[in-house]
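Translate sequence into structure tokens.
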Amino acid sequence: MPHIKTAPFDTARLDAVIREDAAFDFRAVPAVQKGETVREELLGVVWEGERFILEIHKRPEGYLIKPDKPTRPLDVNRIKRALRYLAEAAGLTIEHENITLSPTKTPLAEAYNKRIEDFESPDFGGRRIAVEVGFGSGRHLLHQAQAHPEVLHIGIEIHTPSAQQVLKQIERQGLTNVWVVTYDARLLLEMLPSNAATAIYVHFPVPWDKKPHRRVISRAFVTEAMRVVAPQGVLELRTDSDRYYAYALKVFSEGDRVQFDVRKNHEAAIRSKYEDRWQRQHKDIYTLRLFAEAESPALVQDYDFHFDRALKPLDALLALPQDAIIRPDHFVHFERRYRMVTEEGGVIKCSFGSFERPEHKVIAIREHQAEYYPGVPVRSRINHHAHQTIGEYAYA
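Result follows.
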């Protein structure tokens, strides 16, 4: 991940840069509570039309400046350019860096790199969609895009390098029917329109034998998938894990009216390098396909994630409970708090929503108003319940 390591410096040096340069939004220092030790500062960045946060980790041997994980852009070159610009604007002494651009490499197909906000009111151009969850190397995703040019193929992958490699292949191959998004598939699925997909592929997910609650396949995921696929559309799972196969078979069987089939060692049209390896090891490959039987009601998501009431004073907001707030269907955890030094305001890092698939967001507070930074959470029912709980603690 792009970063710079600098000699220790007075971070107040950044304040003049922030006030004079529209590329920087704010600097925030820890609002430390009793029992906390936080040595990182935050720097809000507005770079090439995208907002994200840089973390400044202060260590005796030097300072590490890197992007905050929940807000970082997929395009690492964008981060590198912002870090380079920051170092030059503030006159920082770089002792080590990972911000060299690689102009000889294939550029990312930026037009097909989608943010979660693009799915709030998605425009698929009148096309059916196919969704692949965790596409890895992208062999299957790219093969399907070439074989079915009339379908828009949406690849979901949380591993940033894999997403970047597929975007480069989209550029190389001149494909125009692939979108790539780096997000939790379980959350993204909740934003897709009903009856929009011909297929949802989940190929060789991590088995999570010791942490089954982290598995992609669950009753809730299957229900959401059956809403998204059109009648006779398919949810297809492929796995080399005997345990995952048995688990998924049970989950697929739990519906009132289900139609599915099971294949063992079925030859796929395209294989990943991992599947090639498993076949050489003579491992069994299971394919489970669950078919949608009826049209689903239209998706309604009129959830509002604005903070629309008067807030408590800033000091009270920065002293919100440290322990997680647990409700029957969701939780809220105010994790770390920071006070802006370039203006009157604060920043709260928090996680909330589903116990199985939480959101990680930043709440920026200034001029007596609050907003999610850099953008609102996924517009799901559970996230909205969590937002309402946040309001219970944040409103005056």
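Note: The radius of gyration is 23 Å.
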